[in-house]
Structures are given as structure tokens and as C-alpha cells.
Predict the structure.
Amino acid sequence: MAKVITITSGKGGVGKTTSTANLGTALAMLGKKVIVVDADIGLRNLDVVLGLENRIVYDLVDVIEGNCRLRQALIKDKHYGELYLLPAAQTKDKDAVSQTEMIELVDQLRSEADYVIIDSPAGIESGFKNAIAGADEVIIVTTPEVSAVRDADRIIGLCEAAGKGHPKLIINRLRPKMVRSGEMMSVEDLLQILAIDLIGIIPDDEAVITATNRGEVLVLDKASKTGKYYMDIARRILGESINIDPIEDNPSLMERLSGMFQGKR
Amino acid sequence: MTDYITIKGARGGLRVQILDTCEWSDALSALKKQLTDGAALLQGMKLSLDLGERELSTQSLDELQTMMREYQNAPVDILSESRTVRAEARTMGFIAKPPLTKSTAVEAEQTSVVMARNVRSGQILRHHGDVMLLGDINAGAEVIASGSVMVFGRVRGVIHAGAMGDRTAVICAIELSATQLRIADLRARAPEDQGQKIPEIACIEETHIAVHAWHDYRR
């Protein structure tokens, strides 16, 4: 029986889809059978990030409406045979699916894989509620910005009210340099506000954009540091205890110089 | 508070007792005042209106319903000893029940409550009485109480103490960085500079809300 994990955030554009694609691929690389589900009906893009757009025939709504069998709608990944995508419908409305239908679908998926990862739409309306309805666990993605943190806090409250327990937290797009100069909230600040367990930190990395454009995911690139951070999160999902080290980058020359003048280093 | 109206905590909401020996118009205007003064606290709470033994005409019930629609967005129940009033209220769409018997109605006028949780953005905590919270009130969250609010944690959201008009209510917190503080009918914004992070207490001093360091406060 699969474990069902929903990835959500409240605010849009903080990296839910990127995280879903990377964690799904990472878990498949670690030898698990994984199904990633795009629950953002009407605005699908998980397929684009995974580079599987041109293989879509049936989608999530087709399965729910009985237009096809579940296995017909599952798309096999380009790289890992044990990774499947259940794409969202592009043309239908997000109200095409009810919570009960979503829970039934998730229960069907459970017997098909080791891990089911659901990419939630932004917001707190029906799409979000559908996405967490069948989840065993929720992972919240946030960036170190006040608006994203505020939304994450709201989502945590809603998850707790929905009986999903305490969600886990991924902090995305951290810029160590800005944190050092006091321009960005630190990991400690975020954890103090949100008061939930951290499962990983991802640095701000331009490579994410180029990878997304190519329809590749960063975990496939062995040289990518960001890919490694996602891989660590996947291992933590599997229950390995890996320390969450602070993100380090090399202080710039200017920073080191000013540090020298202030008598540091 | 007038003698016409008595408010008591009840399971899942509040019970509003309306004196059944006075003129209906007096009772109605007292209720109206109470609903206006306590709007912050009352509006989101489930109310049971206890009419006691009063007999009411359809027209009077109609007046009551119109008024409740205007002030209240949460459900309102009718409690009445009179079978005819209950029957009439039901036809108007109220849930009508006989008042609880004395033995089961062991309700204090105001209750204090201790809660160990965080109040998160978008969540509103309402209570008739004092609130002691072991946890944080995050930005975007609200705590509204008719009594005082004591927080063993950080406050970044909004607190409204004395929400039914009690100007003696206070707000205390280990770290009081609230977006806004309200006591009774007054409100205050936190100063822009973040200031010191020490335990503080807010109370009304004549015309405004004052915030003192915990160790400076003398009652």
C-alpha cells in the first residue's frame, strides 16, 4: 500500500510543482515505485516540468468520469520506468472533481505504487481541499517571504483542522547571502513562526529554470547541488535520518573584505 | 450590562437570556445594544436566545428575526418555555427548543479557558470570558474575548479583549508584537520599530491603550 503525500503551499509560484517533480523522480531513483498526480485541474503543468506533455492521452478527470481505466491514464516517465504521472485535465473546470471522487481515486492509486505524490493547486479552495483529501501526509513548500509564510501558516491551520496532523516543511529559494546581510528571513525565523518540522532546505538556483524549460528535473543531474538537496529530502521521506545542514555558499570577495574591516575572519 | 439581558457561556456558543417580565420593546432595544457593543465577539458565535416564559406574537418574533438577521451571521436558536412560541419560531426557520432544565444548566456567567495551541493565520478564537493561551498568535490570526487575554508566547496577530465592553480587561504576552490591539471600544497599533522583546501588558488608561513592560506594571 502506497503512502500518499500532498505537496502544497497556499501561495502560488513557490515551487510546489518543481518539488513534486524532483521528489517523485528522486524516490524513483531510490528504487521506489512512484505515481505523481497533478491535482491542479485546468492549469496543468507537472507534465511540462517532467517533459511528458506530448504523451498525454487521458487525464485525471477521464479516470474519474470512467472514460478510461486508471492504467491507461498513467504515463511512464522517460528516465525511470517506475515513475508514473497522472496528468491533470487542461480543458475542464476545477469543479469537475469532488472530494469523495478524489479520495476514491487515491485509494485506487494506493495499490499501484509505493509512493503517491500529489501536486496541489495554489489557494485554499476546492482544488486544495481535493488535493489533501486523500493524503496521509502533507508537505508544505514556502519561500522566505512574508506573504508566502503567512499563507503557509494558514495552510498549516487548515491541514490540522482537516485532521492531517502536523505537515512537514520545505524552505525553497533560500539565498544565504541575503540571510547573512539580514535582508531575508532565516531558517530559524521561519521555523519560529510556523512551528512545524523541517524536512529540507533548497537554495535559490537558476538551474531550476533552465531544467524546467528543458523538461528535465535537477535530481537527474548528478553535479547539481540543488538536485542533491532534493535527493536528501527523498531519503528523509523514506525514513533515513540525514542532518539538515545549513545552505552554504562562498561569501563573495566584497563580503570577505568588509568582514576583514569589521575585524571578522 | 443591562438587567434585561444576561449572557452565559453554553456548549458551542452563548446563551442570551432575555428577561421575560419586562416590556418586549425594552428587551428588544437592550438586545440590540448588546449585539452592537459585542459585535466583535458575538457575530461569529452560535447564539441561543432564551425567551423564558414570555409569550410572543408572530409580529414580535418577526421583529426579532429581522434584527438577528441584521446583526448576526452565525446560527441563532430559540429557547422558550412556551409551546406556541416554539411552534411559531419553527415555522419561521429557527431551531426552537425548551430551555435546559436547571440541573443540566451548570454554566458560569463567564468562564476562563486555558488552551495549549498556536492560533494560525486565518483562524479566529472567540471566547466569552478570559483566555489563557500557551502558544503563539501568528500574523493574520485573531483572538477575541469578553475578558482578558494572556498569552504565554508571541503575539503577531490581533487581540481584542473586553469585546463586550469591559474596559478593565487586559492583554499580556511574553512577546507583544501584535498587528493591532483592541480593548473594549479602543484600538492601538504596534509601534513601527520592533522595540524590545520583553513581556508586556496592555490596558486602558483613561482614553487610550497603554502598553507597559511587565515589571513596570502596577495595578
